[in-house]
Amino acid sequence: MITYVLATCIPGNEKEVIQEIKKLPNVVEVNGIMGKYDIFVKVQSSDVTKVDSTIGKLRSVPHVTGTVSIPVLYGQGGTVDNE
């Protein structure tokens, strides 16, 4: 399962938050972004409970103020259908 997470944090703490998120299990990509959200995170595991656990830990990272989770739907014609 792949889930993308868009996170917001307290301004000025982005680099610190990104470093903490990188340490979390099942996180395969983390990038700072501009706009309504501050950080883009890709979480991936074959076990949905591990994805849920990682997202819970991400929400507990100091200075994270909010998240939006976007789970990928397989079979909808996206690139993950080819994996």
UniProtKB/TrEMBL annotation:
It comes from the Archaea. Transmembrane segments: none annotated. Residues 10-73 form the Transcription regulator AsnC/Lrp ligand binding domain. Pfam families: AsnC_trans_reg. Gene3D superfamilies: 3.30.70.920. SUPFAM superfamilies: Dimeric alpha+beta barrel (SSF54909). This is Transcriptional regulator, AsnC family.
